[in-house]
Amino acid sequence: MSEGIKYVTDSSFEEDVMNSTKPVLLDFWAEWCGPCKMIAPILEEVAKDYGDKIQIAKINVDENQAVPAKFGIRGIPTLILFKNGEVTAQKVGALAKSQLTAFIDSHL
């Protein structure tokens, strides 16, 4: 577990994501998902690089089903950027670090 990444559950979602004072990039993932494992170290690097500008968070779709259902998550990894409790942007699939930082920068 990385200190820069927050692990969110169905019960903590409201507080951790919707009520966050800074933008939150939420990664919908599962243990068995290959592309999710590929993007995990990239998310950790981005969490370090961006520091306090953004909160990187992860939610396990196998253990938490209410939040993924609420946002219609069909494929993982899905990354959703929340700002002030609103969905600002969404990407499906693993991204290279340059793609991920470009995605974040264009929406911050």
TrEMBL record:
The active site is at C33, C36. InterPro entries: Thioredoxin, Thioredoxin-like_sf, Thioredoxin_CS, Thioredoxin_domain. The record marks G34, P35 as: Contributes to redox potential value. It comes from the Bacteria. CDD domains: TRX_family. The record marks D27 as: Deprotonates C-terminal active site Cys. This is Thioredoxin.
